[in-house]
Amino acid sequence: MIMNKIIGLMINHWIKNNVIDEDERELYEYGLIITIEYTLNLMTTILIAHYTDEWWACLFLYGSFMKLRSFSGGVHAKTFLRCYIYSSLVILVSLLLIKYNLISIWIYRLGALIGGIYLIYTNPVPSENKPLDEDEIECFTKKEKNIIYIMMLISIIAIFAGFDKIEKGIDSTFIIAAISVVISKIMEYSKRISIVEETIIRIAICDDDIDIANRLKKIVDESKVYGSCEHFVEVYNSAEEILEAVEDNECIDIIFMDIKLGDSNGIDVAREIKEICPDVMLVYVTAFQDYVYDVFDTVPIGFVVKPFDEEEINVCLKRAIKMLKKHEAIFVRMGKKILKVPIKDIMYMCSSGREIHIYDRNDEKYVQYGKLDDYERRLAPYIEFIRIHKSNLVNFDYVTRYEGKKVILMNDMELSISRDKRNCVRERYLEMIEI
């Protein structure tokens, strides 16, 4: 982004001239970005107010929305540019509606009443950049309600004073803020459902010949063997690309690996991948059969010989999908990446506000939005997972000591067992160790 490059040049200039220290780079970068974004938003809002000549409506719409939004939360655009465009359009459309009286004042009032009541009875919505714990949610809820009550009071005064522009500006804030929260909750719910319930099969094709790789991708992608499972097929054209993906813990279940991979040997690449991800299933792609005895240590599930035979590919896919069911996992989305966390590797989960923190046996943490109840239902078939607290779900395979009121995990983490869960935990624990 151009703005980031300009800021980077400014920071580098200041560091070079000893205005700031290198250690202060991130702080100044963040401060400049926030200042520029806020200034740009403010200047654009002023221009829109000037263009529409709706200064009072704009003042109360912009001011009240910024204050309410900081505590109520709502849908967030992923980039500043998108946020800037969306917010500018919302302000412009709102002021044009007010300027030309395109909506009845009673519709404004009804929408504001419904939106205000909804916000009062709805907890603030955290974002990925601003997660909230239970104490913060309680604090934000109180502040949000106070702001809503003040806005309602100002709106009532405006009604009796005949300042319909001010009233419409505040009413617009209630409507926009409520819609934003509703959209955010729908998106959060959809994300939570996809994380907990969907079965995703991710397939990688690694071949340095782009035409061959794309031809194989088309056959694999259009195969009818997946049933109700969702699948993704990605092409990698070098050893470096696929190794980087595996090292980043990207979820790859099946790899079609070309044995002759440019300057690299596909079998050697497969050995490196197996060291990082032992459960990945390999199908070797080759024009020759001379390598068959060299690949046994990588435990391939099949070979595909060029030119491709579609039925041969389907047989390998069916075999892989059948084996996948023996290695169940929870899929989590981290930005644009889909990561796979094997259920057997999950040590414990804990909830913090609307976030679920998932810790694996290597103490890696994955953060998702959702409810612990959903994960408890997902893991119900696994007797080793026991809910010891409203905020904690523990895999007892990683418990080194159980003391009635608490458990100690293999990483020395101590987790308390809530009073109302102690009898249930004891029974489940005894049931587990008897199996």
In one word, what is the shape?
A: globular
**What amount of the residues lies in strands?**
15-25%
Q: Taking Cα atoms only, what radius of gyration do you get, to the nearest Å?
A: 28 Å
* Class by SSE composition: alpha/beta
What is the tally of beta strands? Answer: 17
Summarize the main sheet: 5 strands, parallel
Low-confidence stretches: 192-198
Arithmetic mean of pLDDT: 83
Straight-line N-to-C gap: 58 Å
Number of structural units classed as domains: 3
Order of helices and strands: HHHHHHHEHEHEEEHEEHEEEEEHEEEEEH
Our count of helices gives 13
User: Which range best describes the helical content: under 10%, 10-25%, 25-40%, 40-55%, 55-70% or over 70%?
Assistant: 40-55%
State the strand order across the main sheet.
Answer: 2-1-3-6-7
Description:
The chain is of the alpha/beta class and 435 residues long. The protein has three domains: 53-195, no CATH class; 198-327, Response regulator (Rossmann fold), CATH 3.40.50; 338-434, LytTr DNA-binding domain (OB fold (Dihydrolipoamide Acetyltransferase, E2P)), CATH 2.40.50. It has 13 helices and 17 strands. The strands form five sheets. The protein has a five-stranded parallel sheet, sandwiched between helices. Strands 12-11-10-14-13 form a five-stranded antiparallel sheet. A hairpin with a 4-residue loop joins strand 16 (406-409) and strand 17 (414-416). Helix 2 packs antiparallel against helix 3. The longest helix has 34 residues, at 164-197. The radius of gyration is 28 Å and the shape is globular.
